[in-house]
Amino acid sequence: MKLYPLFADLNGLPVLVVGGGTVAERKIAALLAAGAQVRVGARTLCSALAEWVAQGRIDHLGTSFQPEWLDDVWLVIAATDDSDLNARVAAMAQRQRIFANVVDDAALSRFQVPAVVERTPLTIAISTAGAAPALARRIREKLESMLDHALGELVALAQRYRARIIERRPDLAARRAFYDGLLDGPVMSALRCRQPERAERLLLDTLASAETAPRKASVLLVGAGPGDPSLLTLRALRALNQADVILHDQLVSDAVLALARRDAERIDVGKRCGGRHTQQEQIHRLLLEHARAGRCVVRLKGGDPFVFGRGGEEMEFLQRHGIVCEIVPGMTSAVACAAYAGIPLTHRDYARSVHLLTGHGKESPDAMDWPVLAQDHQTLAVYMSVSRLDELARHLLAAGRRADTPFAIVENGTLPQQRVISGALSDLPTSAARHAVRSPALLIVGEVAALANRHAWFGEQTRPVHQVDECVLPELCADG
Ligand code: SAH
Q1: Which tens digit of pLDDT belongs to each residue from 48-71?
Q2: Catalytic site includes residue 249
Q3: Same domain? 29 vs 156
Q4: 427 in catalytic set
Q5: Does 93 map to a domain?
Q6: Ligand 1, residues 249, 340, 442, 458: which to mutate, most atoms within 8 A of Cβ?
Q7: CA angle 447, 453, 455 (to 5 degrees)
Q8: Predicted TM-score of the model (pTM)
């Protein structure tokens, strides 16, 4: 069966729905959203429909079907659980040349209700001509995740200036280029940043100029999460689909990179920019070069770009050079590694706070406030600590943290090869050496780390490699 696709303007038109259950309710909700004047006929009404009748939003025609119900309606939907009645309604509608839909019965239906993705005023409708509605729903889900929610605003903006766009870009090819630029460039970016006025200004400035499309010079700083690709945000996935060029760190997993647009240029700036000191400057230079060339640049970083990721410096640099930055937060490894090791970072029985620290800051560890960090009933999540475990344990113990304070090291967190090594603080360096812990690894110190033993759930190794001797965890007082 081949269907003719059609978008109907039902605003103010009477439409009949026969049936009063939850299926009818869903159909009616969509009809009301399109401005139709809904009349319902049904023996019983579900509570939502009864309420809508009481509110005067829909009319209840009666309980047993009457052929007059079809008089002067434009469409009819039969959604009862009585197949004979559904067939009768369809046959009568056919005689009166009214389009009818029988829910879940393609053969009896003269029109079908597609699965839709709404980015009002943009509507995307999907139909399998009744062959496999479940598949249409899956395709709808995919489109939902791909398409930004600001897309509707872009369409509305284009609608508002349609006449002017046609006037200023009379040539069809030039007009197409202009619309391409709207979708891929700074106007859409401004809408995503919830800056409608800036978006409008950009559109108008470009229209007034001789440029074919709004010039892009923007970079998306995107957090790729800790490694498991399913921890990417929808926004990050969309950015990967949109990117012309991706500058990524070595830590970004292959599985995440595999989700990017196939023809996007991928640059491993971890490798390419080798030497420690020149590295950041080279990254800045590359970002600027690609952004100025008008490419859609995604700077992809492990975890979150603003948590020990130097995202702040990159943003400052780009803004200084007049490049607009969008930031897409990612799941930082402290949060993800703790979760994948079964450690609730702030379990209310054991921890009042959580501190995110780095073992490799600008300053030496001597400058840190160890007496504060060594207080009990708090959790430390230490990034980049593998080569400094000895020093860290020494400082914490010297500042008074108990020797039996639990720790857990999560190596390759969220990846198939994740390992969790746990023990007591006094054994931290020896234990890590014995198990040859390698970067990337996240160190968690604090009472909650012992919970890794109880709640391990991810990976083959569901017990930590080295267990804490069942230490008794002092619980926090309720008022503490
Ligand atoms: N911006 C990142 C951190 C970058 S610093 C974030 O928000 O997570 C790099 C450090 O992150 C590593 O040394 C390690 O401590 C931690 N890390 C990143 N990915 C990790 C992973 N999959 N497992 C364990 N630690 C990880």
Answers
A1: 999 999 999 999 999 999 999 999
A2: yes
A3: no
A4: no
A5: yes
A6: 442
A7: 95
A8: 0.80
